[in-house]
């Protein structure tokens, strides 16, 4: 939005374009190969879902595995399940069914969930490193330092950290105006061409 001042009158020039639907067109230049590209995506998706779900099930059902290290591993596996369930189905829909339309709200929601999961994974990895530090440096006091109550508080702190960091960005994204073209792979192609000419 630009402010144009004329003698005796103020007007606003609304030149920004904001789309509510974007078309995700896949990988530029390889549209005819999308079926072959989707095979590794699908295999990795199934392996990630089955492996992490099995890990969560085993840790939750075996009472001998209710130790801090395994509970943190369970949190990490849960984050991986949510991350893969959030991103890969959209990519497979583009590759298999050419269903690349995504609303702005859905895109922002996917952005929010993806970045929250990345932040929680980094927090969980940090806590796992702290857990190993306590186990190595203070082995006799390990069970009194890392209690189940403390693990629960750490999980809540990780959740609040990721939520409070990413949530304000959503309001900033909703205020933006976007490109005049809502075909996202064309934007990448234009940027690549501009970089080649520079």
Termini distance? 28 Å
* CATH homologous superfamily placement: Rhodopsin 7-helix transmembrane proteins
CATH topology grouping = Rhopdopsin 7-helix transmembrane proteins
The share of residues in extended strands comes to 5-15%
Q: Describe the biggest sheet?
A: 2 strands, antiparallel
Helix and strand string, N-terminal first? Answer: EEEHHEHHHH
Number of strands: 4
- In terms of per-residue confidence, which ranges show pLDDT below 50 for 5 or more consecutive residues? 1-14, 186-198
Average pLDDT reading: 79
Q: Structural class of the helices, strands and pairings?
A: mainly alpha
What characteristic shape results from the CA principal axes?
flat
Strand line-up in the sheet with most strands = 1-2
Enumerate how many helices there are, as a single number: 6
What's the alpha carbon Rg, rounded to whole Å?
23 Å
CATH C-level name: Mainly Alpha
Essential attributes:
mainly alpha, Rhopdopsin 7-helix transmembrane proteins, two-stranded antiparallel ribbon, 6 helices, transducer, membrane, transmembrane helix
Topology:
Blueprint: E1 2-6, E2 9-13, E3 21-23, H1 34-61, H2 68-97, E4 101-103, H3 104-137, H4 142-145, H5 148-175, H6 184-197
Antiparallel strand pairs: 1-2, 3-4
Helix pairs in contact: 1-2, 2-3, 3-5
Structural features, described:
It is a single chain. The protein is mainly alpha-helical. The chain has one domain (16-188): Rhopdopsin 7-helix transmembrane proteins, CATH 1.20.1070.10. The protein has six helices and four strands. It has a two-stranded antiparallel sheet with strand order 1-2. The protein has a two-stranded antiparallel ribbon with strand order 3-4. α1 runs antiparallel to α2 (68-97) and α3 packs antiparallel against α5 (148-175). Mean pLDDT is 79; it is low at 1-14 and 186-198.
């Amino acid at each position: 939005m630009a402010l144009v001042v004329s003698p005796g009158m103020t007007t606003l020039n609304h030149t920004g374009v904001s789309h509510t639907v974007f078309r995700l067109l896949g990988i530029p230049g390889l549209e005819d190969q999308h079926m072959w590209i989707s095979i590794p995506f699908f295999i990795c998706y199934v392996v990630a879902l089955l492996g992490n779900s099995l890990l969560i099930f085993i840790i939750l059902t075996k009472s001998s595995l209710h130790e801090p290290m395994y509970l943190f591993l369970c949190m990490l596996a849960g984050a991986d399940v949510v991350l893969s369930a959030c991103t890969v189905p959209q990519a497979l829909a583009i590759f298999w069914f050419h269903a690349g339309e995504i609303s702005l709200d859905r895109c922002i929601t996917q952005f929010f969930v993806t970045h929250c999961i990345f932040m929680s994974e980094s927090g969980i990895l940090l806590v796992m490193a702290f857990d190993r530090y306590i186990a190595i440096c203070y082995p006799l006091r390990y069970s009194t330092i890392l209690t189940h109550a403390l693990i629960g508080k750490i999980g809540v702190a990780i959740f609040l950290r990721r939520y409070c960091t990413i949530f304000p960005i959503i309001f900033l994204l909703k205020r933006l105006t976007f490109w005049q073209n809502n075909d996202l792979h064309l934007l990448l192609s234009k940027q690549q061409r501009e970089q080649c000419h520079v």
